[in-house]
Each structure stands twice: as structure tokens, then as C-alpha cells.
Amino acid sequence: DAKTTQPNSMESNEEEPVHLPCNHSTISGTDYIHWYRQLPSQGPEYVIHGLTSNVNNRMASLAIAEDRKSSTLILHRATLRDAAVYYCILRRGGNMRFGAGTRLTVKP
Amino acid sequence: KAGVTQTPRYLIKTRGQQVTLSCSPISGHRSVSWYQQTPGQGLQFLFEYFSETQRNKGNFPGRFSGRQFSNSRSEMNVSTLELGDSALYLCASSYTSGDTQYFGPGTRLTVL
Questions:
Q1: Per-residue pLDDT tens for A31-90?
Q2: What is the DSSP letter of A3?
Q3: Shortest distance, CA A42 to any CA of chain B (angstroms)
Q4: Any CB–CB contact under 8 A between A29 and chain B?
Q5: Is the dihedral of CA B75, B76, B78, B79 positive or negative?
Q6: A40 touches chain B (CB under 8 A)
Q7: Rounded to whole angstroms, how far apart are CA atoms B62 and B76?
């Protein structure tokens, strides 16, 4: 299975943009890049996903490298509510394989 | 629309017992997946059911089993509980297999 690599932790200041990186050098052509986040004491929550092109939604933006070997989740203005563990997942078909994720701390 | 619900939310069992956890998916969703989350191993995929059939299975022993009913509700069962089975068990539903998954709050199982 293709694997993702993320930094263990990142810090951000409130109201500033946050760029969360993910490396997936062994990605295959049919793997979708998914991002989920898990707030304390909750189940994971879908954030965004993409295949080749950059994607935007009300929560975040996803920038995918041209060779697809890396991607970046962008939170445009971090709030305290965005403090969570962010998971970058390569998905092919039904199941999802989570890595350790990046713990994002947002400072007021 | 109501989200994914899991019952019970908390459970305490002793070694050797068995346990059944329940998951009600979002209305209209036909795929249900189960995950185990522990501090040491993180989130690990257990299995996925779609239209009452197991579609995918993770790398867990046969003590872990599941099923899905005609109304898409799902149960998972763990027999002969071990201390290492203490974990948060998460259920996720999606409209179809491969679609975006929506997670429930989980069932916290403690094995003593």
C-alpha cells in the first residue's frame, strides 16, 4: 500500500494561514488524496479530497503537486476550533489507511 | 439529517468475555466501515460492509467479526476479549463503497 509522511506536529497563530504538508512518493495513478481531521474526543471528520487538480471547499484548499508525490492542505485563517490531528490518506476503493497524522496547535 | 450513531458509547468488559457494538449509518448510506483506534497503533481499518456483504477486511484476527443488516445498520463483535482490545471503535458510513466516509463518535471499550 502507498504510504504518506506528515510532520508529527505543527503550530499556528490564530487568524493566520496554515499549510499542512504531506508526502506520498509511492502514490499510484488511481489513488485519491483525502484529508480528514480529528478533534479531541470526536471521530474523524472529512475535510477535502482530490485526484490531480487543486480543490477548494468551505473548509480548506488542497494543493496537489504536478507529479502528485506531495500535497498541501491549506487552512486560510486558522481558528482555535481548527486545533486537531490532520490525516493525509491515499485512498483506492473502500478502505482508508490512516497514518499518524499531524497534530495542529493553534495559539491565540 | 442525523449523523452516524454508535451504541453504547462506553463499555467495560473483562478478559475472555465477548462484546457487540452497534452502528446506525446516515439515512441512505449503504456502506459501513469499522476502525480501531489505540494510542500505540493509531487508526486501523477493521472491515467494510456494503449491501450486507463484507467488501474489505483489515489485518485483524478472526475474533473480530461483523455483519450488516438489510437496513444498513451494522454490528461488530469481538470474542474472547484481550487487554489489548481496549480501544476506541469507530464506525463510518458512506453512500457507497469508495465514497466520502462520515464517522460516528465511537465506542470506548475498556477490557479489564
A1: 999 999 999 889 999 999 999 999 999 999 999 999 999 999 999 999 999 999 999 999
A2: -
A3: 5
A4: no
A5: positive
A6: no
A7: 12
